[in-house]
Every structure is written in structure tokens, then in C-alpha cells.
Amino acid sequence: MPMTSNSTVVPARRAQMFGHIAPGMLSGGADSSIKLWDLEREHNTQAQIYYPAAAVKKSASSHQYGITHLSFYPFDSLAFLSSSYDHMVKVHSTETMQVSGTFDLESVVYSHAMSPIANHLLVACAAQHPAVRLVDLRSGASTQALAGHRGSVLSVAWSPTDEHILASAGSDEAVRLWDIRRSAPSLGVLDMEDSVGIVGEDGLGKNSRLREDGKAHINACNGVVWTNNGKHLVTAGHDERVRVWDTTTGANALSHFGPVIKNKRLSTLLPLLPPSNIGSSGKQLMLYPNEREILVFELFDGTLLKRLRAPTSQLQRNNRVTSLAWRSCDVEVLSAHSDGAIRAWRPETEDSGQETDLSEDDSRKRKREALDDVFRSLTKQKITFN
């Protein structure tokens, strides 16, 4: 899946996290700014430059500190949610870019999530508090706290196939599964030492004993993502490991991605899982934001397929990739960077490769001709380059 960078720097300051729904995209910055982008409209087609279609105006009701996470409402792009270091989760109107609701969680909110399939309107929030907070958009209240973590909760994700199942990851090295219908909602923790899982009576975990002790990583876990079919969970931790789990039994799938993984920051870090039919082999791919590059892996065998880096002229010392999003309608990956840029990555085609080769040959030819002229003027002799 060879890819190239086809984007330019957009006028956003320190882009941190963004959400996407075709044909629009949201971006949030460390300066508390939130911008809306129309990806169907290029303001400069030749340079492929985009400018924001709208932005949230600074006011007493807007966020006061950096944005940590953004997401469109799953069923209607006319609304979106944002969370911030100012302890707030806010609901915005996409049409007016005005705040329509605010929830104060009284601690730093690292990320939030809404179920893509649920009838309920619960927002799961990962915050500095050691309990997963559930906010009900219908009633406007914090309805439930899922207690179990022994430190900050850094990442949450709803199952794409069961509206009541939630996964959470925290600074206590634990990844927990929850069923919010139960009076005792904890379904246990994942253990990196267990490659068999809890099979139960039917081999699928029925009537099995819950595991309450175990570590998913040997340090804080700041990323948790479900595969599209809900059969596997992908987690990222400060031990610089990415692990894949069988969600039926809780077994560690033992996928190994080598020593190239980097992850030391407390902020939420989410691997990107594009649709499984994207790769030429038909295998599930994983894109990982690895400091100043994006690594493309085959998810289950850990094979490194590609390293995506911005052009050298655009690199800065601390130009870190902070977030990734998938644009399915154009088969495009969008990456946010700490230098304020949002870049687009598109698959190379045979035609684009030929064009690149031709342009490189033309460039070399021009350089040879220029050098030839210089040497001829100095020596009055014909110079031939072989």
C-alpha cells in the first residue's frame, strides 16, 4: 500500500486531535481553537491548499484550554462533541459552530466516545479521575461512574457490534471491559501473559470466572481501538508495545510489531484501523502515529509494510504526528501534526509513479545542462556527463 503526501500546511495552530465525517473534518488545537474543514473544496487546486469553512469563536462558553478530542455525533453530522484540558465536554452545532451543551467533569478529560450503533445517548469519558464517566446527552447529566481503574483513565471505546459493551485503558496498566446494563458492570481485565483466554463452558467465555487481576501493558495504556467486526481489540502502551486481543476470550493474540514503536506521552494515542478490504492482500492494516512518521503494519502478523514521512523540507525537530483519521470516500489518510499542519496521504497509482519518475528525470537533465554550461564557460571545452 504505497502512499505519498499530497497535502500542504493548513492555517491551524498546533493541530492536536481531529474527527472526520465525509465530506467534512474537524480539527482542534493546543490553543483551544476548533475549525471545520470542507474536504470537497480546494481553495488552491494546484497546491492543494484548504482553508477552514468555519471556526468556533472564542467566548466565555468556548473551551479555555487545549482540545484533547473531537468527534461528530455518530448519526448526524449537524452536531459534534469536544473535550479539553479545561475539564469540560461540550456539544456544538455544526451549522452555527455554537456551544449547545456543557458538562463539567471536574478533571482533565483525555478522550471521549459515543457508540456508533446505540440507541442510548451515552458519552463515555476518559478523565484524570479513576472512574469512567458516562454522560447522558438526553438528560444532560452524568449518569454513571464505572469504578475499577486505580489511576487516570486515558482512552475509551465502544464495541462496534454491541451497544452496551465498553473498553477502557488507564495509567494503572489495565485494559477493562464493561457491560453498562449490569449492576456490577465490570467484565474483567486483559492479561498480557494469557494467550489462551477464559474459554468458559462453551469455549466462548460462557459462565466463566471474571479476571480482576492482570496487566495489559508494563506501564500506562493510552490507546484502545476495536476492529470493525468487534472480534479484536488493539491497545497501545507506554511500554512501547501494541497488543491485539481476542475479545471473545480475552486472549493475547501475540502480534509483534518489533522495536520501532514509540509511545511515551500521556495524551491519548489511537492506532488507525482502515477497512479490511483496503490492502492488496486483503489483510487488516494498522496505521500507527509513531512520533515523526506513520507506520503501516499488517495487524495480525506485525509485518511493517511502509513508513510514511512528510517531505524533508517540511520536517521540524518536534514535528510529531498527534492524530490520524480515515477518509473512506477518497481512500485517504489524514494526519495532524504538532507543527500545526494537517496532511493528506493517498495511495500511489501506476500513473502517479510514472509521472514522478518523469519529473525526476527532467530535473536531473536540467541540472546536467546547467552544470554543462558552467563548465563550458570556464574551460571553453565541451563536457560530457556519462
Strand order of the largest sheet: 1-27-26-25
The Rg value, from CA coordinates, equals 24 Å
Low-pLDDT sequence parts: 1-16, 200-205, 353-359, 378-386
Helix content: under 10%
Average pLDDT over all residues: 82
Distance between the termini: 35 Å
Report the structural category.
Answer: mainly beta
Number of helices: 1
How would you sum up the global shape? globular
Task: Give the biggest sheet.
Answer: 4 strands, antiparallel
The tally of beta strands, per DSSP, is: 27
The succession of helices and strands, N to C, reads EEEEEEEEEEEEEEEEEEEEEEEEEEEH
Q: Beta-sheet strand percentage?
A: 35-45%
Folded structure, characterized:
The protein has 386 residues and is mainly beta. A hairpin with a 6-residue loop joins strand 16 (175-179) and strand 17 (186-189). It is 8% helix and 39% strand. The chain contains 1 helix and 27 strands. The protein has a 4-stranded antiparallel beta sheet, with no helix packed on it. The protein has one helix spanning 350-379; strands spanning 3-5, 15-21, 24-29, 34-38, 54-55, 67-72, 79-84, 88-93, 99-104, 109-114, 122-127, 131-136, 141-147, 153-158, 165-170, 175-179, 186-189, 221-226, 232-237, 241-246, 251-252, 285-290, 293-298, 304-308, 321-327, 332-337, 342-347.
What's a concise summary of this model?
With about 375 residues, the protein is mainly β. It has 1 helix and 27 strands.
Properties at a glance:
386 residues, mainly beta, 1 helix, 27 strands, disordered C terminus
